[in-house]
Structures are given as structure tokens and as C-alpha cells.
Write a structure and sequence with these properties.
CATH class of the largest domain: Alpha Beta
Order of helices and strands: EEEHEEEEEEHHEHEHEHEHHEHEHEHE
Shape: globular
Length: about 400
Amino acid sequence: MLATTYRRPYRVAARQVPDPVIEHPFDAIVRVTRTCICGSDLHLYHGLVPDTRVGSVFGHEFTGEVVEVGNGVERLKVGDRVLVPFNIFCGTCYFCQRELYSNCHNVNPSATAVGGIYGYSHTTGGYAGGQAEYVRVPFADIGPTVIPDDIDIEDAVLLTDVVPTGYQAAEMGDIKENDTVVVFGAGPVGIMAARSAWLMGAGRVIVVDHVDYRLDFVRAYGPAETVDFREVGDMAIHIKKMTDGLGADVCIDAVGCEAAGSALQQLTGVTMKLQAGAATVLHWAINSVRKGGNVSIVGVYGPTFNAVPIGNAVNKGLTLRMNQASVKRHLPRLIEHVRAGWLNPKAIITHRVPLEEVSDAYEMFSGKKDGCIKAVLIPPTATGSSVKTPNPSIVPGEPA
């Protein structure tokens, strides 16, 4: 089958790899119909995630059609159209029983912190990803959700990660009515966090970034006020000036380890790898939020340490919450929000690209070229399926 394979930093290629097979009675094989490039995939692409092995198949956002099931699978059947959460989980362990699906204790023997994730290096279990024609889905009765007939396939694929992660970012901020929420990062997750903040009662939403077209997009889609950090001397002072000297009620880090904005952080965290990525946004969030405020972190950081101003957090009495999104927990409510029109996930898709052209798509997304907000990959085997397939070329979308 055709799949996105890692070759070296800044290089992926669509290559033929062996088809997946049933390895466990609870497995299913899914023919992929849509898959996305995630902002966190760029950390792999840039060579920042440990134990990313040559030949690894990337991709943790995908929908598909079930083509085979193990003899222990009871709920899914061949022909079901499914969206598959990016996290792999057993459904029975201590953490899954508490709906902390991203922290499942039984799916990643390589780490004690992070659970299992499709296509995200051997530090998250070494599972093959979904930027491929087919993928093996473990615990098939637990993770996948059958796509309702009235949910568009392009909305569904964004419900596998981007929308739930942005939604949980807002949820972890414990937003109260009329709160001022600052979201750092105008990528897809930051855009969804801004939109979700309104659903939770925010009175004001501010998004910080430095890419003009992304700021323009979130200004309309959020909707949100925007700050270009290139025009700001001191972020904390700037945010306090915007908030009557107090600071924001909630700050959300939707950027993670490759944040721009500080040459020193870039040098120590990205170039020299002396810490687990550039902690620029962690500093901005902790220092910009008001005393007694909340900081929510969904940006990806590495497994080692980061130099952060924890003393400021203590002295200000902050609440810091963070995690990978527990996608399955959010899906019933998010599907209803999509049906009601409160969320329009597919509006952030700007490019639809054949899987064969994945190398160009990564270069475009990484380089922030051609106004790319979100790129969806379409495998060759998706053509002629039960979903409508757009013209297989790189086509800019129109924000709704």
C-alpha cells in the first residue's frame, strides 16, 4: 500500500509499504478515506521527536471504512464508516475508566507518561499511522466511532484530533462567563480553541500569532481580536494593557515546542536541544494571565525538561492544566455542535492533496506557504468510495 514514510528531518515520501494485517483478535483494518497533516506532525518532520525511525508511517488524524475485523470484535462490522481518535486506548484500565483515554496504561510500553498515538514515533508506542491507504486499528470496539450519516466526512476527520484538542484546551481553562481568554497560536488547534472559548461563555477572545494570513483567518472564524507578536515588546505588559492592568483570565498554549518569538528559546530548545523545545509560549502564558488565573496547555513538548517560570506561577496562585485530548469523551457533544452549526470544522481546510503528493504538502504546511491552514490528504483508494472525493489536486479552500 501507499503510505507517508519518514526519511530524515525535513523529508517524507509516499512509498509502498506492506499492507497491515490483523495482529490481535480486537484489531480492525480500516481503508483510509481522509487523513490530515497535523501541526504536531511537523515536530516529527523537523526531527525534534526522539525515536522517530526511518520508514515510520506518519499520521494520527484519519477516517475510513472498516474492511476487516478480528474475531474478537463485536461492535464494528465490515463496511462501517469510522472516525478514529488519534489516541489508542484499551477502555478498561484505571485511566480509561476515568475517561483519561490519552493516558491509557496498557498501550505504550515505551513510556510511563504518554499513552499510545498513531504514527507518532516509538516514544508513543511505535504504531503505524493513518497517512496511508490502510491502517491497523487496535481495540477496534473501543476507539473508533461510527460516523453518523448526516456528518460530512471532512467534518469527521477533524473530529479525530483538531476539534477535540481545541475544545479541551478551552475546557481545561475553566472559562467563566465574560472571561477574557488569550490563545497563543493561530494554527488549527488555536483556531478551534478560540471558537470553543465562545461556547464556554468567554466575553472576549484574543489570539496571538505572527503569520498574517493565519491572523486574518482567526479574526473572521473565531471571531477574535488578534495580536501580532512581532509588534510587541513585552507580551505580558501588552496583554495587561489590553485587560485593565490585570492580565487575562485564561491563557491557552496552542503552540508547543517550536514557538517563535524568542531567539534564546529557539537556540536552547530547538537548535541545541538543551531543553524540550522552545518554552516561549509557556513564559508568555504564565506571565500574561492574571493572579489566580488559569493556564491551559495543549501544545506538544518533549519528554525532558523545559525552563519555565514556575515561581511566577506559584506566586500568582495559578492553576495549570494540560493533557493530550481525550477525544472519545468529547465526541458526542462535538457532533451535536457540528449538527447545530456552532462548529464548522471543514471550513478550516484550505488544501486537499493526493497522498502521492504528501512531500509537497508537508513542505507547504511547514513553510506556511500558499495560505495553508489545514491540509487534508486523499489516498488513491479513497476514490470511488462512498464519500465524495474532490478533484485530486492542491486546491485552496474557501473559509466559511
